[in-house]
Structures
1.
Amino acid sequence: MNTLHTVPFGDLRKGIETILARKDGADYVQKLLDEANRRFARHYPHITTFWEGFEKITNAGGYQMVPPNPTE
């Protein structure tokens, strides 16, 4: 049986702010989001900025990791 574990954010916000402060970092992340939306969003709701996604995850309680099932 898999158990959920909450992953602590630590200094994730500061690290991401550092990356996004650089124009090439911000441009890369935005292009990645745009391409993911183009390929996978279809008619489903999707995020348009990194911080929008970050806030949704934070407000929902953070990331959850599920260990792989060794029998699969």
2.
Amino acid sequence: PWGVARHYWVIAKLVLTALSLVVLLFQLEPIERLARAARNGLLTTADTSDQMRLVIHSVGGLLVLLLVAGLSIYKPRGQTDLNF
């Protein structure tokens, strides 16, 4: 009755947000490990790959957030046939 899936851009935002959440959940373990090492002063050059992975995922997450914000602003035309 609220028309949540009436427009394609709303479905795209929902899917992008859900995928971003899944990626974040997979990154929690390396984030925790690096935070613990940094707190204890034990960061080494062996942690460089984890650090680069987090930077790449952070940049990707920022791009997804910008895309979602762009969809919210420009709202491309087109409606779905879904009514739930």
